[in-house]
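Deviations from the work plan: none for this task. Representative record:
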Amino acid sequence: MVNAVHIHEFQEMMKRLYFQRDSQRGIKGTYDWLVDELRELGEALEGEDKEAVEKEFADVIAWLASLANISGIDLERATINKYAGKCPKCRRSPCQCPF
Amino acid sequence: MVNAVHIHEFQEMMKRLYFQRDSQRGIKGTYDWLVDELRELGEALEGEDKEAVEKEFADVIAWLASLANISGIDLERATINKYAGKCPKCRRSPCQCPF
């Protein structure tokens, strides 16, 4: 049983599971599938089934990792580069951007 | 400098940075913002600027974490529950689902 998962490890697991199929489908088709998964998450969030919501969150991050794999992007590196403990705009934590 | 990030740690960082603002915006508004970030990722993927693509990936996972925070979902737990090293449908790695 896995108890803690690095973003990078999760992306690598998705690569082992799905890279061949993701590559064949391509970036456009995988992006469209991710859009569809996000729509399903939106529908689940309008309901009361928390387990369904959790599964849809898992699907969105899974398809995001698949899309990152075939786009040559390291999701963990991307998050570290943009969100290293502070807001990328105001450089503070918590964010104090004047919206 | 952060070198490795658990999905859970990333979600907690997003909570420290943005939870108050995310809560005020609410689930619907945060979901709509995530949809918009995914659209921006799609546009970046059509171009040649890999740095822009990386930043859009970071934004999508960041807004997904924000949405999970205000929805009471632990993203890491969600991924472990659904994708624990094998395909949730065929139970194999790599996936061998007959699509």
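Chain A touches chain B through 58 residues (CB under 8 Å).
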